Amino acid sequence: MIPVLVLAGGLGTRLQNEVKDVPKPMAPIQGIPFLHYVIKHIETHYSSKIYFSLGYKGELIKQYFTRLNCKNYTFYNEPEALGTGGAIKFCWQNIPEEQLLVLNGDTFAPFDAELFIQHCKTHNLTSALLLRHVENCSRYGSVAFNAQFKITRFIEKHNDIQAGWINAGVYLLNKTDFFKRCAALHTFSIERQYLADHPQLGAYPSMGYFIDIGIPEDFKKAQHELSKYKP
Predict the structure, then answer these.
(1) I need a surface site. Which of 16, 24, 31, 189 has the fewest CB within 10 A?
(2) Residue 90, domain CATH
(3) How many structural domains are present in the chain?
(4) 9's torsion region: left (phi>0), alpha (psi -120 to 50) or beta?
(5) Which domain holds residue 217?
(6) In this structure, what are the phi and psi dihedrals at residue 189, rounded to the nearest 5 degrees?
(7) Does pTM top 0.90 for this prediction?
(8) What is the pLDDT of residues 151-198, one digit of tens each?
């Protein structure tokens, strides 16, 4: 079974007035860390090993999830701020599996991992993104793809309010491909320096809920909307 890597090293500078002294993924939603919602969902619907990539105040995340006494957890501490791509590369050097499901620890997009993986097999997609359809993609930028589910374009953030498909922060990656394309990179963004330049990147468009707690407005919105997903 393909293991999961959760990127949980976010600093959360835009949330500092709302949340103090904890890493962004540990921001409390109805008294429970946001990251617990993410982990609970993946554990409930997809039984696999879970690796954590930790950065700012990572010890708080490790302490919290260690208390849950789950033997499927492994924690990796970034030696320095490496960016999302660098964090994946650092952790994957110690992970033997050829494929990884990577999740951003500050976004929540409930999905069926088995269907995602099967979609990629059916359409011969070595690496792919989970996409979500939102009514206003101006904050995120949008993603275009063709009938073969190959991504054709990443459209930058803009001020026009319009519906579209966005990157939901869930990736299926192939180790050989990833390390080949990122061989010369150390500190880098997976979004800007791997995904954006990948000529054969796949898309898994999936309708459903999505939230990114990176700004105060959506952090406050999550306090109400995540009730039905409460661990």
Answers:
(1) 31
(2) 3.90.550.10
(3) 1
(4) alpha
(5) 4-229
(6) -95, 125
(7) yes
(8) 999 998 877 778 999 999 999 999 999 999 999 999 999 999 999 989
